[in-house]
Amino acid sequence: MPSSAKRLLVGSTESYSGKTAVVLGIGLQLKALGIDLAFGKPMGSPVRGDEVDPDLDFVLQTLGLGDDRYFPPTVSLSETVVANWLKSGEILTCTAQLNSFTETKGESLLLLEGPGNLHEGKLVSLDLPQMVEAIDAQVLLVTRYDSLLLVERLLTAKAELGEHLLGVIVNDLPEAAIEQFKQLAVPFLEQNHIPVLATLPRSPLMRSISVRDIVGRLKADVLCCGDRLDLMVETLTIGAMNVNSALRYFRKGINMAVVTGGDRADIQLAALETATQCLVLTGQIPPSREILERAKDLEVPILAVDSDTLSTVERIDELFGQARLHEPVKVKCLEELFADHFDIDRLMQLLNLKVPVAT
After folding, report:
1. Which domain range does residue 213 map to?
2. What per-residue confidence (pLDDT) applies to 359?
3. What angle separates helix 150-161 from helix 128-135, to the nearest 10 degrees?
4. 201 and 220 part of one domain
5. pLDDT per residue as tens digits for the range 2-35
């Protein structure tokens, strides 16, 4: 039957801007207020060849939603699917496949996660502007701070989404930019009918990755402390200088992954005496017994890889730009960020959503 539920679609101006984090942050606050939520994602986004988006189950579990409050993807833009469509040479229109998102399962609000950016899905006539028209949803747009020039892309988004744009969240604001952004950009956006519901400060923890993530990306051998792979890494450091310089440098770091050659025992030992979460050794040279024993004493995992130092650093650095939320410590941090910086009352007002009366 036609849905009487409201539909809020969390979109973004660019990939890896924090859509899933925003869905969870908002969802947790609304659940705490007693709002009957459902969650869905119209267009699936398989990761690295997987057929299932790994974030979907995580969102459902974190929000405590069952199958009766889940709207699964009806379209997928996996590599295989896209290749088959391209071979057919047809212009595909998948808008009709979104009909299920106009139905209801009894929820008050259907919280949806949109595609990676405004135009992803254009191949199948399901970019963000077309999607919100098809399901009559309002959009909360997430953008990652890079400079004041982000105002231009938000104005462009407003022009494309029109009245469907409910508001925006600016994510990952460095501390030095917060005041200027609030004084200059926020009033300008508000004057142009773009409500700013949150300016979320940069959080090293939210951008962090686990040692297990590093092991998976590098296909590394774990030489010790395999039970400590849940440690979180916030910064990446290269150990290629002399040991005195290295020690001064390492002491400034917080929760580091240190990448260095397997033959640099002096650097390895210096790293272990500072805030190092894991050592990544390159060059196929095993560490000395002394280093292994010290790492075990301090419970610091040592990883060994076949690749050279430069390519190893590049591959780890990519992970920081794609950090996922699948750790309880990040969910806790997210709850605190939204409690401090997100205007939930304004969201409720814009959605015309009422807190249910307790029975």
Report:
1. 209-320
2. 38
3. 40
4. no
5. 446 799 999 999 988 999 999 999 999 999 999 9
Q: Which of 81, 27, 93 is nearest to 55 (CA)?
A: 27
Residue 357 lies in a domain: no
Q: What is the CATH number of the domain that holds 250?
A: 3.40.1390.20
Length of the chain: 359
Amino acid at site 179: E
Which string of DSSP letters, residue by residue, matches 193-260? T--EEEEEEP-TTTT-EEHHHHHHHHT-EEEE-GGGTT-EE-EEEEE-S-HHHHHHHHHT-SSEEEEE
Interior/surface letters 277-297, b for 16+ CB within 10 angstroms, e for the rest: bbbbbbbeeebeeebbebbee
Cα 141 to Cα 168: distance, rounded to the nearest angstrom: 5
The number of CA neighbours under 13 Å toward the Cβ of 197 is 26
Q: Is 334 exposed, middle or buried (0-12, 13-18, 19+ CB in 10 A)?
A: buried
- The rounded distance, in Å, linking the Cα atoms of 312 and 305 is 8
* The two structure tokens encoding residue 132: 């919100």
For residue 358, being part of any structural domain is answered with no
Tens digit of pLDDT for each residue in 230-254?
999 999 988 766 666 766 767 778 8
Query: What is the Cα–Cα distance from 224 to 303, expressed in whole angstroms?
Result: 8
Residue 210 · residue 232 · CB < 8 Å = yes
| Overall domain count for the chain | 2
What pTM did the predictor assign? Answer: 0.84
